[in-house]
Amino acid sequence: MRQMDRRRFLHSAAGAAAGLFSLQGLSAAIQTATTPYQRPRLKITKVSTAVVGGSLHARIYTDQGIFGQGEAVDAISGAVPIIESFRGHLIGRDPLNVDAIWERIRTAGIFAGAQAGQYITALTAVEIALWDIAGKATGLPIYQLLGGKMRDRVRMYCDSGTNNRKDPNAQKFISQIIDMGFTAAKIDIDDANDPARFDRVNWTANNQEIDNMVDKVAFMRESLPKHIELAVDMHGRYDLGTAKRMAKELEPFRLLWLEEPVPPENVDAMRDVRQSTHTPICAGENLFLRHGFRQLLEKQAVDIIMPDIQKCGGLLEGRKIADMAHTYYIPMAPHAQASPIGTMATCHMMVAIPNALVVEWHWGHPASRHEQWKVYVKEGDILQKGYIYVTDKPGIGVEMNDEAVRKMQRPGQKWFDT
Ligand code: MG
Protein backbone atom coordinates (compact mmCIF):
# COMPACT_ATOMS: atom_id res chain seq x y z
CA MET A 1 0.00 0.00 0.00
CA ARG A 2 1.33 3.40 -0.92
CA GLN A 3 2.06 5.85 1.90
CA MET A 4 -0.89 8.14 1.00
CA ASP A 5 -3.41 5.26 0.62
CA ARG A 6 -2.27 3.72 3.88
CA ARG A 7 -2.83 7.00 5.74
CA ARG A 8 -6.29 7.36 4.17
CA PHE A 9 -7.20 3.77 5.11
CA LEU A 10 -6.16 4.17 8.71
CA HIS A 11 -8.09 7.40 8.95
CA SER A 12 -11.28 5.85 7.55
CA ALA A 13 -10.92 2.75 9.79
CA ALA A 14 -10.63 4.97 12.83
CA GLY A 15 -13.67 6.88 11.65
CA ALA A 16 -15.65 3.66 11.23
CA ALA A 17 -14.61 2.48 14.68
CA ALA A 18 -15.69 5.79 16.20
CA GLY A 19 -19.01 5.50 14.35
CA LEU A 20 -19.44 1.99 15.66
CA PHE A 21 -18.65 3.17 19.15
CA SER A 22 -21.29 5.92 18.96
CA LEU A 23 -23.86 3.45 17.68
CA GLN A 24 -23.15 1.21 20.66
CA GLY A 25 -23.39 4.25 22.91
CA LEU A 26 -26.68 5.23 21.32
CA SER A 27 -27.97 1.67 21.63
CA ALA A 28 -27.01 1.56 25.31
CA ALA A 29 -28.64 4.93 25.87
CA ILE A 30 -31.86 3.70 24.24
CA GLN A 31 -31.75 0.53 26.32
CA THR A 32 -31.42 2.55 29.49
CA ALA A 33 -34.14 4.99 28.57
CA THR A 34 -36.78 2.62 27.19
CA THR A 35 -38.67 -0.47 28.28
CA PRO A 36 -40.13 -3.46 26.43
CA TYR A 37 -43.52 -1.80 26.93
CA GLN A 38 -43.14 0.68 24.04
CA ARG A 39 -42.65 3.57 26.38
CA PRO A 40 -39.74 5.50 27.85
CA ARG A 41 -38.44 4.12 31.12
CA LEU A 42 -40.39 5.40 34.11
CA LYS A 43 -38.73 7.08 37.06
CA ILE A 44 -40.16 7.48 40.54
CA THR A 45 -40.29 11.16 41.46
CA LYS A 46 -42.24 11.38 44.70
CA VAL A 47 -43.81 9.38 47.55
CA SER A 48 -46.63 10.66 49.75
CA THR A 49 -48.98 9.21 52.36
CA ALA A 50 -52.34 9.66 54.06
CA VAL A 51 -53.74 7.83 57.09
CA VAL A 52 -57.49 7.21 57.13
CA GLY A 53 -58.86 5.28 60.09
CA GLY A 54 -56.81 2.08 60.32
CA SER A 55 -55.42 2.39 56.79
CA LEU A 56 -52.18 3.89 55.57
CA HIS A 57 -52.38 4.87 51.90
CA ALA A 58 -49.14 5.48 49.97
CA ARG A 59 -49.00 7.19 46.59
CA ILE A 60 -45.92 6.82 44.40
CA TYR A 61 -45.58 9.27 41.52
CA THR A 62 -43.53 8.98 38.33
CA ASP A 63 -42.07 11.35 35.76
CA GLN A 64 -44.77 10.45 33.22
CA GLY A 65 -47.97 11.28 35.06
CA ILE A 66 -48.65 7.70 36.18
CA PHE A 67 -49.01 7.18 39.90
CA GLY A 68 -49.74 4.11 41.98
CA GLN A 69 -51.57 3.69 45.26
CA GLY A 70 -51.02 1.04 47.92
CA GLU A 71 -52.69 0.42 51.26
CA ALA A 72 -51.38 -1.02 54.52
CA VAL A 73 -53.38 -1.85 57.65
CA ASP A 74 -53.13 -2.80 61.31
CA ALA A 75 -49.41 -2.35 62.03
CA ILE A 76 -49.36 1.22 60.73
CA SER A 77 -48.53 3.13 63.88
CA GLY A 78 -45.27 4.92 63.06
CA ALA A 79 -45.22 3.56 59.52
CA VAL A 80 -45.40 6.99 57.81
CA PRO A 81 -41.83 8.02 58.76
CA ILE A 82 -40.67 4.52 57.82
CA ILE A 83 -42.04 5.04 54.30
CA GLU A 84 -40.26 8.42 54.22
CA SER A 85 -37.05 6.59 55.10
CA PHE A 86 -37.50 4.45 51.94
CA ARG A 87 -37.25 7.49 49.64
CA GLY A 88 -33.58 6.92 48.85
CA HIS A 89 -34.46 3.46 47.49
CA LEU A 90 -37.35 4.81 45.42
CA ILE A 91 -36.66 8.23 43.92
CA GLY A 92 -35.13 7.93 40.45
CA ARG A 93 -35.70 4.16 40.26
CA ASP A 94 -37.69 2.30 37.63
CA PRO A 95 -40.93 1.38 39.46
CA LEU A 96 -41.52 -1.61 37.20
CA ASN A 97 -38.72 -3.55 38.87
CA VAL A 98 -41.08 -4.19 41.76
CA ASP A 99 -39.41 -7.18 43.35
CA ALA A 100 -35.91 -5.70 43.06
CA ILE A 101 -37.00 -2.51 44.85
CA TRP A 102 -38.84 -4.58 47.47
CA GLU A 103 -35.82 -6.80 48.12
CA ARG A 104 -33.45 -3.83 48.27
CA ILE A 105 -35.60 -2.07 50.90
CA ARG A 106 -36.12 -5.27 52.89
CA THR A 107 -32.45 -6.23 53.03
CA ALA A 108 -31.41 -2.64 53.75
CA GLY A 109 -33.55 -2.81 56.89
CA ILE A 110 -32.14 -5.96 58.47
CA PHE A 111 -30.94 -3.94 61.47
CA ALA A 112 -34.00 -1.68 61.41
CA GLY A 113 -36.65 -4.30 62.10
CA ALA A 114 -37.26 -5.56 58.56
CA GLN A 115 -38.24 -9.02 59.75
CA ALA A 116 -41.82 -8.09 60.77
CA GLY A 117 -44.05 -5.35 62.14
CA GLN A 118 -44.32 -1.75 60.97
CA TYR A 119 -41.28 -1.91 58.70
CA ILE A 120 -42.86 -4.68 56.63
CA THR A 121 -46.30 -3.08 56.76
CA ALA A 122 -44.81 0.17 55.40
CA LEU A 123 -43.00 -1.81 52.69
CA THR A 124 -46.29 -3.53 51.88
CA ALA A 125 -48.00 -0.22 51.05
CA VAL A 126 -45.08 0.68 48.77
CA GLU A 127 -45.07 -2.74 47.06
CA ILE A 128 -48.77 -2.56 46.24
CA ALA A 129 -48.40 1.00 44.89
CA LEU A 130 -45.58 -0.23 42.63
CA TRP A 131 -47.81 -3.02 41.25
CA ASP A 132 -50.51 -0.41 40.60
CA ILE A 133 -47.97 1.59 38.58
CA ALA A 134 -46.76 -1.54 36.76
CA GLY A 135 -50.31 -2.36 35.75
CA LYS A 136 -51.07 1.17 34.59
CA ALA A 137 -47.77 1.38 32.65
CA THR A 138 -48.38 -1.90 30.82
CA GLY A 139 -52.15 -1.49 30.49
CA LEU A 140 -52.79 -4.72 32.40
CA PRO A 141 -54.70 -5.61 35.58
CA ILE A 142 -52.39 -6.74 38.38
CA TYR A 143 -53.70 -10.31 38.33
CA GLN A 144 -52.22 -10.62 34.86
CA LEU A 145 -48.79 -9.63 36.17
CA LEU A 146 -49.08 -12.16 39.03
CA GLY A 147 -49.54 -15.13 36.72
CA GLY A 148 -53.01 -14.63 35.26
CA LYS A 149 -56.54 -15.39 36.34
CA MET A 150 -57.81 -18.77 37.61
CA ARG A 151 -61.25 -17.45 38.52
CA ASP A 152 -63.29 -14.31 37.88
CA ARG A 153 -64.50 -13.66 41.39
CA VAL A 154 -63.38 -14.03 44.97
CA ARG A 155 -65.63 -15.43 47.67
CA MET A 156 -65.95 -13.09 50.66
CA TYR A 157 -67.05 -13.83 54.20
CA CYS A 158 -68.87 -11.40 56.45
CA ASP A 159 -67.38 -10.45 59.79
CA SER A 160 -70.61 -10.65 61.78
CA GLY A 161 -71.98 -7.66 63.66
CA THR A 162 -73.50 -10.00 66.23
CA ASN A 163 -72.55 -13.18 68.07
CA ASN A 164 -75.11 -13.84 70.79
CA ARG A 165 -78.79 -14.43 71.47
CA LYS A 166 -79.03 -11.61 74.05
CA ASP A 167 -78.11 -8.95 71.47
CA PRO A 168 -81.27 -6.95 70.57
CA ASN A 169 -79.74 -6.23 67.14
CA ALA A 170 -78.86 -9.87 66.46
CA GLN A 171 -81.62 -10.51 63.95
CA LYS A 172 -80.75 -7.35 62.01
CA PHE A 173 -77.14 -8.45 61.58
CA ILE A 174 -78.03 -12.05 60.78
CA SER A 175 -80.45 -10.83 58.10
CA GLN A 176 -77.66 -8.64 56.73
CA ILE A 177 -75.37 -11.67 56.28
CA ILE A 178 -78.12 -13.61 54.49
CA ASP A 179 -79.51 -10.73 52.39
CA MET A 180 -76.07 -9.64 51.19
CA GLY A 181 -75.55 -13.10 49.72
CA PHE A 182 -72.61 -14.23 51.83
CA THR A 183 -71.79 -17.94 51.89
CA ALA A 184 -69.63 -17.62 55.01
CA ALA A 185 -69.50 -15.54 58.18
CA LYS A 186 -67.19 -15.15 61.15
CA ILE A 187 -67.77 -14.34 64.81
CA ASP A 188 -65.43 -13.45 67.67
CA ILE A 189 -65.93 -15.52 70.83
CA ASP A 190 -63.16 -14.20 73.10
CA ASP A 191 -64.69 -11.84 75.65
CA ALA A 192 -62.49 -9.73 77.90
CA ASN A 193 -65.61 -8.47 79.68
CA ASP A 194 -67.23 -11.84 80.39
CA PRO A 195 -68.45 -11.48 84.04
CA ALA A 196 -67.46 -15.12 84.59
CA ARG A 197 -63.76 -14.24 84.29
CA PHE A 198 -61.75 -14.39 87.52
CA ASP A 199 -58.69 -12.51 86.32
CA ARG A 200 -58.22 -9.52 84.04
CA VAL A 201 -54.87 -10.70 82.72
CA ASN A 202 -54.75 -14.49 82.65
CA TRP A 203 -56.64 -16.15 79.79
CA THR A 204 -57.50 -19.58 81.18
CA ALA A 205 -61.22 -19.93 80.51
CA ASN A 206 -63.36 -21.55 83.23
CA ASN A 207 -66.36 -23.79 82.55
CA GLN A 208 -68.80 -20.88 82.50
CA GLU A 209 -66.69 -18.96 80.00
CA ILE A 210 -66.38 -22.08 77.84
CA ASP A 211 -70.18 -22.50 77.96
CA ASN A 212 -70.67 -18.84 77.03
CA MET A 213 -68.34 -19.17 74.05
CA VAL A 214 -69.94 -22.40 72.87
CA ASP A 215 -73.39 -20.80 73.14
CA LYS A 216 -72.34 -17.96 70.82
CA VAL A 217 -71.36 -20.51 68.19
CA ALA A 218 -74.55 -22.52 68.80
CA PHE A 219 -76.72 -19.40 68.41
CA MET A 220 -75.09 -18.36 65.15
CA ARG A 221 -75.18 -21.91 63.78
CA GLU A 222 -78.92 -22.17 64.59
CA SER A 223 -79.60 -18.75 63.06
CA LEU A 224 -77.74 -19.05 59.79
CA PRO A 225 -78.89 -21.26 56.93
CA LYS A 226 -76.82 -24.42 56.55
CA HIS A 227 -75.19 -23.25 53.31
CA ILE A 228 -73.54 -20.31 55.15
CA GLU A 229 -70.33 -21.62 56.71
CA LEU A 230 -69.20 -20.30 60.06
CA ALA A 231 -65.68 -19.40 61.21
CA VAL A 232 -64.78 -18.50 64.80
CA ASP A 233 -61.99 -16.21 66.03
CA MET A 234 -60.33 -16.43 69.48
CA HIS A 235 -57.89 -13.57 68.70
CA GLY A 236 -54.78 -15.32 69.99
CA ARG A 237 -55.55 -14.68 73.63
CA TYR A 238 -56.08 -18.00 75.38
CA ASP A 239 -53.69 -20.51 76.90
CA LEU A 240 -53.03 -23.91 75.38
CA GLY A 241 -55.41 -25.87 77.61
CA THR A 242 -58.33 -23.53 76.87
CA ALA A 243 -57.55 -23.60 73.16
CA LYS A 244 -57.64 -27.41 73.06
CA ARG A 245 -60.85 -27.57 75.09
CA MET A 246 -62.57 -25.06 72.79
CA ALA A 247 -61.43 -26.79 69.61
CA LYS A 248 -62.88 -30.07 70.95
CA GLU A 249 -66.14 -28.52 72.19
CA LEU A 250 -66.71 -26.87 68.80
CA GLU A 251 -66.21 -30.03 66.74
CA PRO A 252 -69.98 -30.77 66.38
CA PHE A 253 -70.50 -27.38 64.67
CA ARG A 254 -68.31 -28.32 61.68
CA LEU A 255 -66.69 -24.89 61.58
CA LEU A 256 -65.02 -23.41 58.53
CA TRP A 257 -62.15 -22.76 60.94
CA LEU A 258 -61.13 -21.85 64.48
CA GLU A 259 -58.79 -18.85 64.31
CA GLU A 260 -55.75 -18.11 66.49
CA PRO A 261 -56.84 -20.36 69.40
CA VAL A 262 -53.44 -19.57 70.98
CA PRO A 263 -51.14 -16.56 70.39
CA PRO A 264 -49.39 -16.56 67.00
CA GLU A 265 -45.73 -16.69 67.95
CA ASN A 266 -45.50 -20.26 69.33
CA VAL A 267 -45.90 -22.55 66.34
CA ASP A 268 -45.48 -25.70 68.46
CA ALA A 269 -48.45 -24.72 70.64
CA MET A 270 -50.56 -24.07 67.53
CA ARG A 271 -49.57 -27.50 66.21
CA ASP A 272 -50.58 -29.08 69.54
CA VAL A 273 -54.06 -27.59 69.16
CA ARG A 274 -54.33 -28.76 65.57
CA GLN A 275 -53.27 -32.29 66.41
CA SER A 276 -55.83 -32.47 69.22
CA THR A 277 -58.96 -31.79 67.16
CA HIS A 278 -60.97 -32.26 63.97
CA THR A 279 -61.83 -28.54 63.98
CA PRO A 280 -59.77 -26.86 61.23
CA ILE A 281 -57.23 -24.42 62.70
CA CYS A 282 -56.39 -21.14 60.97
CA ALA A 283 -53.69 -18.54 61.76
CA GLY A 284 -51.38 -16.04 60.12
CA GLU A 285 -52.78 -12.50 60.32
CA ASN A 286 -50.02 -11.58 62.77
CA LEU A 287 -47.17 -13.13 60.79
CA PHE A 288 -45.00 -11.40 58.21
CA LEU A 289 -43.17 -12.46 55.04
CA ARG A 290 -42.56 -16.02 53.79
CA HIS A 291 -40.19 -16.38 56.71
CA GLY A 292 -43.03 -15.89 59.19
CA PHE A 293 -45.02 -18.69 57.56
CA ARG A 294 -42.18 -21.15 57.03
CA GLN A 295 -42.39 -22.91 60.38
CA LEU A 296 -46.18 -22.77 60.50
CA LEU A 297 -46.19 -24.76 57.26
CA GLU A 298 -43.20 -27.03 57.91
CA LYS A 299 -44.62 -28.09 61.26
CA GLN A 300 -48.10 -28.43 59.77
CA ALA A 301 -49.48 -26.36 62.63
CA VAL A 302 -52.58 -25.13 60.76
CA ASP A 303 -55.18 -26.27 58.23
CA ILE A 304 -55.62 -22.82 56.68
CA ILE A 305 -53.29 -19.78 56.52
CA MET A 306 -54.58 -16.24 56.72
CA PRO A 307 -51.90 -13.64 55.96
CA ASP A 308 -53.10 -10.07 55.74
CA ILE A 309 -52.02 -9.04 52.25
CA GLN A 310 -51.95 -5.36 53.34
CA LYS A 311 -49.48 -6.25 56.08
CA CYS A 312 -47.47 -9.39 55.29
CA GLY A 313 -45.22 -7.91 52.58
CA GLY A 314 -47.53 -7.27 49.63
CA LEU A 315 -49.09 -8.92 46.61
CA LEU A 316 -46.13 -10.88 45.26
CA GLU A 317 -45.11 -11.87 48.79
CA GLY A 318 -48.70 -13.01 49.35
CA ARG A 319 -48.50 -15.08 46.18
CA LYS A 320 -45.19 -16.61 47.33
CA ILE A 321 -46.70 -17.49 50.74
CA ALA A 322 -49.69 -19.03 48.95
CA ASP A 323 -47.38 -21.10 46.77
CA MET A 324 -45.44 -22.34 49.81
CA ALA A 325 -48.74 -23.30 51.45
CA HIS A 326 -49.92 -25.05 48.29
CA THR A 327 -47.05 -27.54 48.54
CA TYR A 328 -48.60 -28.61 51.88
CA TYR A 329 -52.13 -28.68 50.37
CA ILE A 330 -53.10 -25.76 52.61
CA PRO A 331 -55.51 -23.07 51.36
CA MET A 332 -55.29 -19.34 51.98
CA ALA A 333 -58.05 -17.20 53.51
CA PRO A 334 -56.54 -13.70 53.86
CA HIS A 335 -57.42 -11.51 56.78
CA ALA A 336 -58.64 -8.15 55.45
CA GLN A 337 -59.50 -4.88 57.17
CA ALA A 338 -58.59 -2.81 54.12
CA SER A 339 -60.68 -0.33 52.17
CA PRO A 340 -62.01 -1.30 48.71
CA ILE A 341 -58.57 -0.33 47.32
CA GLY A 342 -56.63 -2.83 49.42
CA THR A 343 -59.41 -5.40 49.19
CA MET A 344 -59.42 -5.25 45.39
CA ALA A 345 -55.60 -5.54 45.43
CA THR A 346 -55.94 -8.68 47.58
CA CYS A 347 -58.51 -10.02 45.11
CA HIS A 348 -56.03 -9.60 42.20
CA MET A 349 -53.71 -11.96 44.09
CA MET A 350 -56.51 -14.32 45.09
CA VAL A 351 -57.72 -14.89 41.51
CA ALA A 352 -54.14 -15.76 40.50
CA ILE A 353 -53.44 -18.49 43.09
CA PRO A 354 -54.75 -22.07 43.01
CA ASN A 355 -55.40 -22.41 46.77
CA ALA A 356 -57.70 -19.39 47.30
CA LEU A 357 -60.44 -20.09 49.88
CA VAL A 358 -62.20 -16.90 50.96
CA VAL A 359 -61.42 -13.26 51.97
CA GLU A 360 -62.69 -11.28 54.95
CA TRP A 361 -65.17 -8.40 54.62
CA HIS A 362 -65.25 -6.25 57.72
CA TRP A 363 -67.38 -3.25 56.77
CA GLY A 364 -70.92 -4.31 57.69
CA HIS A 365 -71.03 -2.64 61.07
CA PRO A 366 -71.59 -0.05 62.31
CA ALA A 367 -73.89 1.26 59.59
CA SER A 368 -71.71 4.37 59.09
CA ARG A 369 -68.77 2.13 58.17
CA HIS A 370 -70.86 0.34 55.56
CA GLU A 371 -71.75 3.73 54.04
CA GLN A 372 -68.02 4.61 53.95
CA TRP A 373 -67.25 1.36 52.08
CA LYS A 374 -69.80 2.24 49.39
CA VAL A 375 -68.28 5.64 48.56
CA TYR A 376 -64.57 4.93 49.17
CA VAL A 377 -63.77 4.42 45.47
CA LYS A 378 -65.21 6.07 42.38
CA GLU A 379 -66.42 2.68 41.15
CA GLY A 380 -68.89 2.51 44.07
CA ASP A 381 -69.66 -0.70 45.99
CA ILE A 382 -67.36 -3.45 44.67
CA LEU A 383 -69.07 -6.17 46.74
CA GLN A 384 -71.65 -8.13 44.76
CA LYS A 385 -73.77 -10.71 46.57
CA GLY A 386 -70.97 -12.05 48.72
CA TYR A 387 -68.31 -11.93 46.00
CA ILE A 388 -65.87 -9.44 44.52
CA TYR A 389 -65.37 -9.65 40.78
CA VAL A 390 -61.83 -8.69 39.96
CA THR A 391 -61.65 -5.72 37.60
CA ASP A 392 -59.95 -5.87 34.20
CA LYS A 393 -58.83 -2.23 34.39
CA PRO A 394 -55.06 -1.55 34.52
CA GLY A 395 -53.37 -1.75 37.91
CA ILE A 396 -55.60 -2.27 40.95
CA GLY A 397 -58.39 -0.84 38.82
CA VAL A 398 -60.27 1.14 41.46
CA GLU A 399 -59.65 4.80 42.19
CA MET A 400 -59.96 6.47 45.57
CA ASN A 401 -62.82 8.95 45.84
CA ASP A 402 -60.59 11.63 47.39
CA GLU A 403 -63.42 13.99 48.24
CA ALA A 404 -65.36 11.35 50.20
CA VAL A 405 -62.34 9.69 51.85
CA ARG A 406 -60.79 12.94 52.99
CA LYS A 407 -63.90 13.53 55.10
CA MET A 408 -63.16 10.21 56.88
CA GLN A 409 -59.82 11.50 58.17
CA ARG A 410 -59.47 12.75 61.67
CA PRO A 411 -59.00 16.55 61.60
CA GLY A 412 -55.42 17.73 61.37
CA GLN A 413 -54.03 14.65 59.64
CA LYS A 414 -51.79 14.89 56.58
CA TRP A 415 -53.47 14.27 53.23
CA PHE A 416 -50.86 13.11 50.72
CA ASP A 417 -48.96 16.21 49.51
CA THR A 418 -51.10 18.86 51.10
MG1 MG B 1 -58.43 -12.74 63.61
Structural class: alpha/beta
Report the radius of gyration as a whole number of Å.
Answer: 26 Å
The beta-strand count equals 12
Strand content: 5-15%
Percent helix: 40-55%
- How would you characterize the largest beta sheet? 9 strands, mixed
Helix and strand succession?
HEEEHHHHHEHEHEHEHEHEHHEHEEH
- Provide mean pLDDT, rounded: 94
Count of separate DSSP helical elements: 15
Kindly describe this structure.
Helix 11 (289-298) packs parallel to helix 12 (315-326). The N and C termini lie far apart (75 Å). The chain is an alpha/beta fold and 418 residues long. The radius of gyration is 26 Å and the shape is globular. Helices cover 42% and strands 14% of the residues. Strands 4, 5, 6, 7, 8, 9, 10, 11 and 12 form a nine-stranded mixed beta sheet that branches. Magnesium ion (MG) binds at residues 233, 235, 259-260, 285, 335.
Topology overview:
Layout (H helix, E strand, L loop, with lengths): L2 H31 L10 E9 L2 E8 L4 E7 L5 H7 L1 H4 L7 H11 L8 H22 L3 H4 L7 E7 L10 H10 L4 E5 L18 H17 L5 E5 L6 H10 L7 E3 L7 H9 L5 E3 L5 H10 L5 E2 L9 H12 L13 H13 L6 E3 L5 H9 L7 E2 L2 E3 L12 H5 L12
Parallel strand pairs: 4-5, 4-10, 5-6, 6-7, 7-8, 8-9
Antiparallel strand pairs: 1-2, 2-3, 4-12, 11-12
